[in-house]
TrEMBL record:
It comes from Thamnidium elegans. It comes from the Eukaryota. This is Pentacotripeptide-repeat region of PRORP domain-containing protein. GO terms for molecular function: mRNA binding. PPR repeats lie at residues 103-137, 138-172, 173-203, 283-317, 318-352. The lineage of its organism: Eukaryota, Fungi, Fungi incertae sedis, Mucoromycota, Mucoromycotina. Gene3D superfamilies: Tetratricopeptide repeat domain (1.25.40.10).
């Protein structure tokens, strides 16, 4: 009548009700744990999956093989080592409380997880565990294991796995060979990769290539610049019966390969995509390849058209996209547009990296960089200085750009904040730019103070072991040539030539001081150094110092003067009004080949005619012209312009008439250029008209010349 439950007596019908309720509670509890596990798997949260699984095991919930496979598919991609341990626990639970025999799938998940952790040795040990549990490794086991060795670039061990497969009579399939091919690609074994590919295509008993094979081999062809293999694969894959098998990955590799060969082919393939490959939508990688191809091919306009296509397709540019475009602007020295691209990138919330900032800063040394753009660049550098690291070369470029504009305060500030505390190691270019900034800012005393300090440091570095010097700096010819050249720029030349050493310009004296320091410091002046000095002397019309430099050129046993030095000499003497010396030098360089290896060039011809014209030596100029014609010297438009101006400078009208006839007979007009006849330009005609006015020709004759000019250049 009554049933005992603990100390409580219940009616028999109530006891039955209690038991049924208890069973229902257990069933609900099992269903709840299963539901939680199923939901965690659906959400893809590995941590929640593991928690739900542990809860299910504690409550002895029923977990079938299908659910185990789903949770292993998820957890095998875990990035923590605990995820590997979890998979091992699941396999143990299967053999234990779950009473489910593990098959290949579960062991493969464990091997795969070890591979993600870069533990191929432990992955290999799973094979012994499989055999102990009565599961023989199969083709998929070894393919998964090869993937583990691929992740660690262990080619040697992968080859041993292939041999083991052969011993166990397991025939490799396409996946096997694709893994090996990709491993050969990652390790740079291109010849072996191509050899294996050839074997796959030629050996009838081997697994045949698939689209992934072609993509891998094509990638190798790009990196090794093997056009034979690359063209073969491109032609094969692009054939009509293969188009539907092409995916985005191999398309990108085809574009990458063709970008090194022919830009037109790349663009043609891109524009054919909608018709020939409608199933493929270009991605960010596609556009990055196209942009890089256009910019390498020198077609910046097309690159920016593709950039607009990219934005129109709602594909957001990434750091590679902007980096490519900034690199393109860097090549042409366009700082303004490069800064705009950089700012656009930041507006898109793309964080710049060291490489992009370095590429941007390197443009600062471009001569086209404006002072305003440099100020913007300096502010960007200061903004990102805490997070980005620039190297010495980049800071030197920025200092050089500022130095060209005479921004000595900004250059000094950069030096103090970057180099003084050895944030970056300064080099000779650093100090060159520091001194250059003071020279261009016309603070010669400050420039020389730094120079003298550096000169003494150079001696210390020369006489002591470099390892004992905190900042090893040694002066060189580039240092001197750069500073000497700068001292002949941004000046107001003297109106009168000076022969007095005490009347020399302070800037020129500074240049000579540096030049004279070179030999005692055992630094041999180069042709460029001498050319810079000659240019400075010519700019200042300082015949006294010019003669000194000329004498040094004559006695320098280590210098083999080239035509550049002779041209610089003639130009300098021309500027000082010494036409006779110009003719002496001309005589030297125009001697027969048996006497001299130096031959005049077109620059030499223009200089000697300019000198003859300005120094009243028109007769000598005519003799030189006859000699040039007799020797069939190739005269250009500038040579004709110089000779025409020289003739026009003759006192009487005969010289002008000769120049006019020469223009009409021996030069061609721009609309009809003729072979062997230089094309006259605006300067040619303007010279004739200008001297006609100076010689007070009749107004009707001058008007006729103006009409002639209009007809030649189609002026409206």
């Amino acid at each position: 009548m009554f049933s005992r439950k603990g100390t409580q007596l219940l009616p028999r019908n109530l006891s039955t009700l209690y038991i049924n309720f208890h069973s229902l509670q257990l069933t609900c509890r099992y269903q709840t744990t299963q539901t939680n596990l199923r939901r965690a798997i659906g959400r893809g949260n590995i941590h929640h999956v593991q928690t739900a699984y542990e809860s299910a095991i504690k409550q002895n919930s029923k977990i079938d093989r299908n659910m185990i496979r789903k949770l292993l598919l998820l957890t095998r991609h875990g990035k923590r080592y605990q995820d590997v341990e979890f998979i091992k626990t699941v396999i143990q639970d299967m053999k234990g409380s779950l009473k489910i025999t593990p098959y290949h799938f579960e062991y493969h998940a464990l091997i795969f997880a070890y591979g993600l952790q870069h533990l191929p040795e432990k992955a290999y040990n799973v094979l012994d565990q499989m055999r102990n549990d009565g599961v023989e490794p199969n083709l998929y086991t070894y393919n998964t294991l090869l993937g583990c060795y691929k992740r660690t670039n262990n080619l040697r061990q992968a080859e041993l796995i292939l041999k083991e497969m052969n011993r166990n009579k397991i025939t490799p399939d396409t996946v096997t060979y694709n893994t090996v091919l990709h491993l050969l690609l990652r390790t740079g074994e291109f010849d072996r990769l191509f050899e294996l590919y050839r074997t796959m295509t030629d050996d009838t008993e081997m697994a045949k290539p698939d689209i992934y094979t072609y993509s891998t081999v094509l990638d190798a062809a790009v990196k090794s610049q093997n056009q034979t293999i690359g063209n073969e694969i491109c032609d094969h894959v692009l054939s009509l019966n293969k188009r539907d098998k092409i995916d985005l990955n191999i398309l990108n590799n085809i574009l990458r390969f063709k970008s090194d060969i022919d830009l037109n082919q790349v663009l043609e393939l891109y524009y054919d995509l909608p018709d020939k490959f409608p199933h493929i939508q270009p991605d960010r990688v596609t556009f990055n390849i196209l942009l890089d191809a256009c910019l390498k091919g020198g077609n910046a306009a097309k690159a920016y058209m593709l950039f607009r296509d990219m934005k129109k397709a709602d594909i957001k540019p990434d750091i590679i996209t902007y980096g490519t475009l900034i690199d393109a602007e860097s090549r042409i020295g366009n700082l303004k547009d490069a800064i705009q691209l950089f700012q656009d990138m930041c507006y898109e919330s793309i964080e710049p990296n060291d490489r992009i900032m370095t590429s941007l800063v390197n443009i600062a040394s471009s001569k086209s960089a404006t002072a305003q753009d440099l100020d913007t660049l300096v502010s960007l550098v200061e903004k990102f200085q805490p997070t980005l690291q620039l190297d010495t070369k980049a800071y030197n470029s920025l200092m050089h750009g500022l130095a060209l504009h005479g921004r000595s305060k900004q250059v000094q500030h950069l030096y103090d904040t970057v180099f003084r505390d050895i944030t970056c190691q300064p080099d000779i270019a650093t100090f060159t730019n520091l001194i250059l900034s003071y020279i261009n800012d016309d603070y010669l005393d400050d420039a020389m103070e730094i120079y003298y300090t550096l000169r003494e440091h150079h001696k210390k570095c020369r006489d002591e072991k470099l390892s004992q010097v905190r900042i090893p700096i040694q002066l060189d010819t580039t240092f001197y040539s750069t500073l000497i050249a700068s001292l002949s720029q941004n000046i107001t030349p003297n109106q009168m030539t000076t022969d007095d050493e005490y009347e020399s310009s302070p800037r020129l004296v500074t240049a000579v001081t540096m030049f004279n320091d070179m030999r005692p410091l055992r630094i041999q002046p180069t042709a460029h150094t001498y050319t810079a000095m000659l240019h400075a002397c010519g700019q200042y019309r300082d015949r006294y110092l010019l003669d000194l430099v000329h004498q040094q050129i004559k006695v320098d046993m280590y210098l083999d003067p080239d035509i550049g030095i002779y041209n610089a000499l003639m130009d300098a003497y021309n500027r000082t009004g010494d036409g006779d010396t110009v003719l002496d030098i001309w005589q030297t360089i125009s001697m027969p080949a048996s006497f001299s290896d130096i031959k005049p060039d077109q620059t030499s011809v223009s200089i000697v005619f300019d000198s003859c014209g300005h120094n009243g030596l028109v007769t000598r100029a005519q003799s030189i012209w006859i000699w040039l014609k007799r020797t069939k010297f190739k005269l250009n438009t500038n040579n004709y312009n110089s000779y025409i101006e020289c003739l026009c400078r003759a006192r009487d009208r005969a010289g002008w008439d000769h120049a006019y006839q020469l223009t009409k007979q021996e030069m061609s007009v721009p609309q009809k250029p003729l072979h062997g006849k230089p094309v006259m330009d605006q300067k040619t005609v303007n010279t004739l008209i200008s001297f006609a006015k100076k010689k007070k020709f009749d107004s009707s004759e001058i008007e006729s010349l103006e009409q002639w000019k209009s007809s030649i250049f189609a002026l409206k």
